């Protein structure tokens, strides 16, 4: 009997006043929608307001964990570089939410910090282009050396 009373007491008097509305979009214009338990009113709050004030004690801990993970994923997405422009000589303009830089294709491939922050398909395209460029240079060197060898062989005469 006490279990049934405790169940109804928990249903009608929850520990936490606010819960996160997880209906997409979860975060809109930098604000999270928090619904007050037992009413239809909602509060908009930023992650800093939620996590750095005493307001955190009124929110369900599962929702706080969800907000922290959502913010962490958002920061990781903002750190990823996107290729904005391809320039001559296989240099690229990279940009993320925090910075913009011009980097050569060879540096993109060799620098682990940059290559980790670029989409894998874009990185493959850059590596292919750099490999193609290097292959063409090697091909030109081989052709030059073949021409040099063939020009030397013209001076020889065949005696029967």
Keywords, separated by commas or semicolons:
rod-shaped, three-stranded antiparallel sheet, alpha+beta, single chain, 7 strands, 160 residues
Plain-language structure description:
There is one protein chain. The chain is an alpha+beta fold. Helix content is 50%, strand content 19%. It is built from 6 helices and 7 strands. The mean pLDDT is 87.
**For the report, how would you describe the main beta sheet?**
4 strands, antiparallel
How much is the average pLDDT? 87
Distance between the termini: 119 Å
Helix content: 40-55%
Q: Provide the low-confidence segments as ranges.
A: none
The general outline is rod-shaped
Taking Cα atoms only, what radius of gyration do you get, to the nearest Å?
31 Å
Which secondary-structure class do the elements indicate? alpha+beta
Residues in β-strands, percent:
15-25%
The DSSP helix count reads: 6
What is the chain-wise order of helices and strands?
A: HEEEEHHEEEHHH
What's this, in brief?
With 160 residues, the chain is an alpha+beta fold. The chain has helices spanning 2-12, 47-51, 61-79, 105-110, 112-116, 120-153; strands at 18-20, 27-28, 31-36, 42-45, 82-87, 91-95, 100-104.
